[in-house]
Amino acid sequence: MLDYFIRRLLGAIPTIFIIIFISFFLIRLAPGGPFDFDRSLAPEIQANLNAKYHLDEPVYVQFGYYLKDIVRGDFGPSFQYKNYTVTELIVQGFPVSMQLGLSAIILALLLGCSAGIFAAYKQNSRFDYLVMAISMTGISIPNFVMAPLLILLFAIALSIFPAGGWNDGAFQNQVLPIITLALPQIAYIARITRGSMIEVLRTSYIRTAFSKGLPTVYILTRHALKPTLLPVISYLGPAIAGLITGSVVVEQIYGIPGLGRYFVQGALNRDYTLVMGVAVFYGMLIIVLNLLVDILYGWLDPQIRIRSKQA
Question: Angle CA(166)–CA(170)–CA(176) in degrees, nearest 5?
Fold first, then answer.
């Protein structure tokens, strides 16, 4: 298992390099620059700024400077947020995005797995059809549509929760964003769990357990749950990364000071270092989460550990 971990870790290095390369050159293909304001700067001031940040040199030279800084763990200064480095902005925004994302995935796991298991056990029943219908609805409605609907219902019509703001992470301010993020994931996890549980319930050892008269709850939780969760575990890596990195729209709608808002503002302002720093950070986060999921999958499935030793 250790060899498998080391191989995956080494394989992540070229992936990170590709992310840096693509992010660096894509942001520079966009029209404009980080110092193109509504008011034109004096030519000498513009020249000094370009020289300070090496923007007056060829692109490949700038890429070399950036790689050198990245190796040292320095994402550079932000061009638009004065007196702030990109690392400081990431440290400020990421805990908020992580808190929302992890809360949403926990809620999605609890509700999605429970609904999927009972839908599979009651296959082709009204409850099964209801779960699948709700799941398709949750998958079909995007976040930027669901968020205003929740605001209209719970914030404006019923006045139960605030319509936006963070308020230092108060519970009332987190409810609607977490629900908005969790609803599609609940639908996906319910469908994955249902399909996996149906396959497990058809296996010979589960049918044998039922024939012995063992309690249904015991069979589902003791014998069927672990193999059922394997596809869900595989889905968790990209799902968690998607919730944390894909909460840009939700953070904008609810006015949450997460990392997604910095990314959007950096893209609009051509803040090269901020956009690239967040993109590289997100890429590293996705790689780490997928690696953790692979390790967890290997722990749940002994065959993975055996194959990793033989490889």
Answer: 70
Q: Which domain holds residue 284?
A: 86-310
119 in any annotated domain? yes
Q: What is the pLDDT of residues 104-149, one digit of tens each?
A: 999 999 999 999 999 998 888 898 898 888 888 878 888 888 999 9
State the angle between helix axes of 272-300 and 259-268 in degrees (0 to 180), rounded to the nearest 10.
Answer: 140
Q: Which residue from 239, 250, 156 is spatially nearest to 191, judged by alpha carbons? A: 239
DSSP assignment string, 110-123: HHHHHHHHHHHHTT
* Other CB atoms within 10 A of residue 143 CB: 18
The conformation of residue 167, written as its DSSP 8-state character, comes to G
Its sign, for the CA torsion 273, 275, 279, 282, is positive
**What is the number of other CB atoms lying within 10 angstroms of the CB of residue 275?**
26
Tokens of 35: 């110092």
The answer to whether residue 43 scores a pLDDT higher than 90 is no
Judge whether 74 lies within some domain.
no
Question: Residue 293 sits in a domain of what CATH number?
Answer: 1.10.3720.10
H-run or E-run covering 59: helix 59-71
Q: Of 166, 146, 184, which is closest to residue 97 (Cα–Cα)?
A: 166
Of 279, 290, 305, 178, the C-alpha closest to 233 is: 290
